[in-house]
Amino acid sequence: MEEELKCPYCSRIYDHPVLLPPCHHALCLRCAISLTEHTQKDVGGQLAEGGAEGGDKISVQGNKNNEIVQQHDLNGKNKNGMGTEASGADEEVQENEAPSEPIHDADQSQVLKCLECHTVVKMGPDGALGLPRYTAMVNIIARKRTNEPADAATSVDQGDSSIPYCQVCEEAPGSKATMECRQCRVLYCEVCIKMRHPARGPLADHVLSPVVTTKPDVEGETMLQQHEVCLAHGERPSIYCESCHWCGCEECASIHHQEHSLQPLDVLAKKQKTELSESLQQLSNRAKSAAVYKTSIKTVQDRVNLHCDLLDSEVERQCSELEQAIEEARTRLLEQLQQERDITNKTYREQTTSCTKRLQQTTALVQFCIQAIKEPEPDAFMQMGPQLIGRVSDLDLTWDKELTSTTTRMSPYIDLDLDHTNVLRGFNLFNFIKMK
Length: 436
Known about the structure:
The protein is mainly alpha-helical. Helix content is about 45%, strand content about 10%. Among the domains are: about 1-60 and about 100-155, Zinc/RING finger domain, C3HC4 (zinc finger) (Herpes Virus-1, 2-Layer Sandwich), CATH 3.30.40.10; about 280-415. The longest helix has about 110 residues, at about 265-375. The protein is rod-shaped and about 175 Å long.
């Protein structure tokens, strides 16, 4: 819940929160004052560059009926009846009148841009000091601070001092407050009371009083701020104007809201609380469904992680089997190649041995025949001549047959080859199977 209690500008727990009527977002009073000053500069710069057309492009989205919070009479008195001084029954309030002044007219109005929805809020001469106090937020913060332990309450508490701080100082937490305006319901230090609340113009009739502190429920809050009463009639708010989104006493309603749609405040609040409770019940059911859904997501996520772990192990196992099969195939192929090498080498060794033996026989016969040819005696030569001629012829035919046969069988290659294309194609098909 603490995120709902933080100001969108300073990102801290609301310190004296004020409500932006058109969009119902909130700001710290000090932050609203700072944003008002910055917005005035930004808007002025846009108008200086774009002229009248630039001014027309700026959309003032404030509700017409909410202007009653900031309407002033000829004497500069606020007429909203709650938290400010009423001016009397004889003065007319220009209700439901659309803002006709351009927002760049700093003499007539000030503007503030909401940080949440970027709505441009038009304010009166009092600027951020005239914004309504966000009482509900103050009460929620007070209850949270009361229910929290002392060490945890410091995250909500913006100041434990019995003397509250000035609400309009530029630097947080500001100086000690010394004066309080009963109409503006704002605390000022001695410096800011002179700069921010001069006793002239519409502020001339405001009543200033010394700060009176108390610690009944909310430390650091004034007694005036703890009890919302109509300063004009001294009554608690009992009527709500649906046209203006305003609540106040019956006297103020009869004077300023005669033709508006009025409802008893307690009845309307009870009705809206019932409506909010019903909406919260639906939202709570959605939150429960979301919690169940979140749990189911976590369960499915855990199961997915478990399944991925199992698949990871399966990938390791099957890849190990493939690696083992490849290693076995490698060993088998190398052994087969070695066997073929040995057989081929043995064949060639045998052929070499046979050729060597035949060569020796041929050489011996050639040398013997040469010696026989050298025999001078014819009769001696004829004893061996015919025989040698036959042997030479037979040996020549034998050589021709053996050389032809050996040359035909000789090859620099063995009768083996290797092609892994089909295996590689099948290996590339190794992938996960999509489960439906």
